[in-house]
Design brief:
Blueprint (H helix, E strand, L loop, with lengths): L6 H16 L2 E3 L5 H9 L1 H10 L5 E3 L3 E4 L14 E2 L4 E2 L2 H14 L5 E3 H12 L3 H6 L8 H16 L3 E5 L2 H5 L6 E4 L1 H4 L20 H5 L10 H16 L3 E2 L5 H22 L2 E4 L3 E5 L14 H18 L8 E2 H14 L11 H17 L3 E4 L2 E4 L17
Helix pairs in contact: 1-2, 4-5, 4-7, 11-12, 13-14, 13-15
């Protein structure tokens, strides 16, 4: 069936594309069941669209649909995995332990417990010099370590790789209970999205292995170069809140200049995203907001603080000091002044210095993830797109 034969099919096809973009591992049952059936209906067109565009393979089996979303930028760490129960972003230790857990569970019995997984991770990681040097040895005698392991397990539960049978992870965190799981080996094997098997990288130093997992070999043939540029640009446009021309290579800028209309038409046809073109770059906006994992603005204290700090950064861009960075301490000081002015509106914990510092970190991370701000060490660099959040004079926080 041609998915473009009428508006009804076009919208259904877009819905399937958007579902896979937002949830690259869809299960055939539960909350994904309805959209999974839609993906099955348009499977041939979806495979062509994703391969002709961003070059992402789509695998569909009876239990799941898996879109392998290879990133446009492997160095971008602003959208980590989350333990959604505690809103804890994954750090290097949690990612490392996730890899250990996957390696162990791949060879485990069909059922296992959280305690057994912890023991096997301790055994596998014991004496590993790289883990010891990085402070990531899996030792679970402390509560914070058990919390990190639980974050890993909860991610696997959300992906359907583990099914909780008995118990609760909170009991394990408190060192007062255990949890029994059943493994879904089919889904467990599809959680990672690597181009190369980790087993093939043992000859490389550990520091090089993460990048090589996603290494993509490009043919030396002349016709392969434009295809590689198109693929990378489409990935960046789909993955990034903003694509700044200054971040592109000269070849990428030249290709985008000549093919911009075709690329944006392709993306709009498949997703419904609307391009916003500025002198500094391109952003794809989502009228339905379903593909937006981070919103700006949002309600509550975090949203209000984000708008006030965004206005502060936008004003810096228009000042004579626009080329200089904003020190972290200066940004934190500005938020402290805002907190005093809006104490009656903001949540109570922001009256405490530790709570205010945490709010500042949260807002800075959000603005960096939206590519409105960049951080290098203790320096903050406002980006051009933040100018859209410049507030009217009467709404600003007085510095």
């Amino acid at each position: 069936m041609n998915p473009w034969e009428d508006d009804l099919h076009r919208e259904a096809f877009r819905e399937a594309v958007r579902a896979l973009l937002s949830r690259p591992l869809l299960r055939a049952t539960g909350k994904d069941a309805e959209v999974f059936r839609l993906v099955r209906r348009y499977v041939d067109g979806l495979r062509r669209w994703f391969m002709d565009g961003p070059g992402w393979p789509l695998m569909i089996e009876s239990e799941f649909a898996r879109l392998f979303k290879y990133p446009g930028r492997t160095e971008n760490a602003t959208h980590p995995a989350l333990d959604t129960r505690r809103n804890l972003p994954f750090n290097r230790r949690r990612y490392t332990w996730l890899c250990l857990a996957l390696a162990i569970l791949d060879k485990s019995e069909r059922q296992t417990t959280l305690g057994e997984l912890a023991k096997e991770m301790e055994r596998l990681g014991r004496g590993d010099p790289a883990l010891a040097e990085a402070g990531m040895e899996p030792v679970f005698d402390r509560r914070d370590a058990r919390m990190d392991l639980v974050s890993v397990v909860r991610l696997l539960i959300e992906q359907g790789a583990l099914l909780r049978i008995h118990g609760n992870e909170e009991g394990y965190i408190q060192d007062s209970g255990d949890v029994l799981y059943t493994l879904n080996r089919t889904l467990l094997a599809r959680v990672p999205a690597f181009r190369r098997s980790p087993n093939t990288l043992t000859a490389f130093p550990p520091s090089q292995r993460p990048a090589r997992l996603q290494e993509e070999l490009v043919s030396a043939a002349p016709e392969a170069r434009p295809r590689a540029l198109r693929t990378r640009l489409l990935r960046l446009l789909l993955d990034s809140p903003v694509v700044y021309y200054a971040d592109l290579t000269e070849d990428e800028r030249d290709y985008l200049t000549g093919q911009r209309s075709r690329l944006l038409d392709f993306l709009h046809a498949g997703t419904g995203l609307l391009p916003e073109l500025r002198a500094e770059g391109i952003a794809l906006t989502d009228p339905e907001t379903g593909l937006t994992d981070l919103r700006m603005p949002e309600e509550g204290t975090d949203g209000h603080a984000a708008l006030l700090l965004a206005d502060f950064y936008a004003a810096h861009l228009r000042s004579p000091r626009a080329q200089s960075a904003i020190p972290w301490s200066r940004s934190e000081q500005h938020l402290r002044q805002c907190a005093k002015e809006h104490a009656h509106r903001w949540r109570r914990d922001t009256r405490d210095p530790a709570g205010l510092r945490n709010l500042h970190r949260t807002v800075v991370h959000r603005l960096c993830a939206l590519q409105l701000l960049r951080q290098t060490g203790e320096d903050l660099h406002p980006q051009p797109a933040i100018a859209r959040y410049r507030l009217a004079a009467g709404k600003r926080c007085t510095p």
